[in-house]
Write the structure tokens for this entry.
Amino acid sequence: MLQPFFEWMQGLRFSAFFLESVWPTPIVQVIHLSTVALFIGSVLVVDLRLLGRGLIDQSISELTRKVQPFLLWSFVVLVLTGIPQMSSTALKQYYSPFFWWKMGMVFFGLIVTFGVRRYIASKEEGYFGLVWPKVIGLTSIALWTSVTIGARLIGLLS
Ligand code: HEM
């Protein structure tokens, strides 16, 4: 169903520019990967806090509020640097199961990180008991870990 869209992306002048030039692709990849570190770090400090580890002298709501701009802006940079990589190799991505795996996990990760987790943080600590925050923390870690594994497998196996 999306094949015509990916064929269109592959044929763009923008995609040809990235394929034909030497520096733009590695520069974009370095920014993408460095931003992964910032994004995953911002995700993890809150997940660990939900598990009762790490920055336990800060409340969950305060920590969530403090990391929110880092989460948001690093995700924006990931999208902006993901687009040229996706567009210049659009057909490879379209036929890679790992690309679709990654995008699916990003979708669920966003729901957990920007939806469920923020909802938990908006209530008083203890409101959801001891178990639910831990379940959400572990779910978040599992989802974002599978995003990064899926992403690496595109390069290795597609
Ligand atoms: C929705 C936004 C995103 C798009 C469109 C995108 C797209 C891409 C593409 C096309 C690649 C190159 C894959 C290849 O052909 O080897 C890539 C690499 C990668 N991405 Fe993303 N990405 C996005 C978000 C993320 C996020 C949120 C993470 C992790 C938290 C992430 C982690 C990675 C990693 C680890 C690599 C592998 C780099 C390598 O193996 O050299 N990406 N991304």
